[in-house]
Design brief:
This protein is an alpha/beta fold and about 400 residues long. It has two domains: about 130 residues, 3-Layer(aba) Sandwich (Rossmann fold), CATH 3.40.50.720; about 200 residues, Dihydrodipicolinate Reductase, domain 2 (2-Layer Sandwich). It is built from 14 helices and 14 strands. The strands form two sheets. Strands 13-12-11-10-6-9-8-7-14 form a nine-stranded mixed beta sheet. A five-stranded parallel beta sheet has the order 2-1-3-4-5, with helices on both faces. Strand 1, helix 1 and strand 2 form a beta-alpha-beta unit. Helix 4 runs parallel beside helix 5, helix 5 packs antiparallel against helix 14 and helix 10 crosses helix 14. The structure holds nicotinamide-adenine-dinucleotide. The site of nicotinamide-adenine-dinucleotide has 25 residues, from strand 1 and helix 8.
């Protein structure tokens, strides 16, 4: 069980780009990164597109005034001059800026933690992957839900054959908060999400389903999609060509089939993030809203609800437990788990500790790149008249 004791020699000197006062996701980064006080220390930032607001905000977070910068380029240049300059940067800005900032950060010799969806194209992803390798740096991707330890329990149980051979995969990440276009006109965070120049080639496929796709791969690393069919719609017409609803059918290489529904117009739905894996003997089901529980159903036997922090769970699951039984865990714990693994990865990279890196399960550059490929394959299928397309795991030329 985690208790906040240090896992690495000293915390990384950490900065944020974006994630300012009005941002949706910024605080999740800080609660995740700073939870233990032993992995990261926030020492600098270019927190906001509005330099003045960003500075005032950074000072209110306790960051030295002189290290609250007007933009990321100034931050990289100034911090490079300091002996105690930043070592890691988190990018929590709208999608269209990720590639450029990530590249600049790696070139400045920094480890990077970047928001999803990572970039617009897998070519950009391959380039950044190569650059990170060349620079000896880690790129982590904040698939923040994926640090929930019950997902590791699912992974362990599937590996142990508890549900038999996987036959069906049911994935859902939906909500109803964009059921109409009101926020498209009034919320800055929603405006860019439906603008292809900033959001990229998708809305909900990138905004929501990249999380669930990564989580499914975390749970079932052996399952590769062979082909998929994506059918996407813009029910609020002004969002076209970006979708606010999509269905994806998947065929896996082992013969299993899958179905993913992602939507921001599931009116009335507050949180529809579910994963159900059906095997030849039984099924496992997890629902974000009851994230500390796992439903385990074996055909012909009474169904069980496995509860977090209990000794009957797999060691890999309980190793990421933070509270112990009888206490309610939240999303920040998932984020904290991800952030801690980013720090362990970066520390291992700095020490050329390939053994640690090999055994560490966390959303790395490959996971981010895979998320881009997921969107590309879905968009290719949808734009091809919703036809089956072979799942391209890599571009042939690369
Ligand atoms: P937002 O519009 O609410 O906030 C963006 C923030 O970035 C603002 O503070 C803005 O001032 C700042 N900003 C914009 N451009 C900047 C620049 N060039 N330099 C410095 N600051 C800049 O957006 P959001 O909803 O917080 O989303 C940001 C990113 O996080 C997106 O990529 C989104 O997909 C992702 N996101 C991820 C999760 C998750 O669970 N991992 C949740 C929400 C959003």
């Amino acid at each position: 069980m985690l208790n906040g004791e240090k896992k690495i020699a000293r915390p990384f000197r950490w900065a944020m780009i974006g994630g300012g006062r009005l941002s949706q996701v910024g605080y999740k980064h800080r609660t995740g990164a700073l939870r233990d006080n032993t992995a990261f220390t926030l020492v600098a930032g270019a927190f906001d597109i509005d330099a003045e607001r960003g500075k005032e905000f950074g000072v209110n977070l306790g960051v030295n005034e002189n290290r609250c910068y007007p933009d990321y380029k100034t931050m990289f240049a100034e911090e490079a001059k300091r002996e105690d300059g930043i070592e890691v940067v988190s990018i929590a800005t709208p999608n269209g800026t990720h590639y450029e900032i990530c590249k600049a950060a790696l070139e400045a010799g920094l480890h990077v933690i970047c928001e999803k969806p990572l970039f617009f194209t897998s070519e950009e992803g391959e380039e950044i992957k190569e650059l990170a390798e060349r620079k000896g740096k880690i790129v982590g991707v904040t698939y923040g839900f994926s640090g929930n330890q019950m997902l590791l329990q699912m992974r362990a149980m599937i590996q142990q054959g508890k549900i038999g051979d996987i036959r069906m995969v049911e994935l859902q990440y939906t909500h109803g908060f964009s059921a109409n276009d009101a926020a498209d006109k009034t919320s800055d965070a929603q405006k860019w999400r439906v603008d292809p120049k900033v959001a990229g080639p998708s809305f909900v496929l990138g905004d929501l389903s990249t999380h669930t796709y990564y989580m499914s791969q975390l749970i079932m690393p052996q399952m590769k999609i062979k082909k998929l069919l994506c059918d996407r719609q813009s029910f609020v017409g002004s969002r076209a060509p970006l979708e606010d609803n999509a269905y994806v059918l998947m065929h896996y290489e082992n013969g299993a089939v899958g179905r993913l529904w992602t939507s921001s117009i599931n009116a009335g739905c507050m949180d529809g993030h579910r994963i159900r894996i059906v095997g030849s003997k039984g099924s496992l089901e997890w629902w974000d809203n009851k994230g500390g529980e796992l439903r385990y159903e074996v055909q012909g036997e009474p169904a069980q609800t496995l509860i977090r922090a209990m000794p009957y769970l797999d060691d890999s699951c309980n190793a990421d437990e933070r509270l112990g039984a009888l206490h309610v865990e939240g999303l920040s714990d998932s984020w904290a788990n991800i952030y801690l693994k980013f720090a362990i990865a970066m520390d291992a990279k700095n020490r050329n500790d390939e053994e640690t890196l090999k055994n560490l399960v966390y959303p790395d550059i490959n996971a981010g790149l895979d998320g881009i490929r997921w969107i590309e394959n879905c968009v290719r299928s949808a734009d091809n008249g919703s036809t089956w397309v072979e799942f391209e795991h890599e571009k042939a030329a690369l």
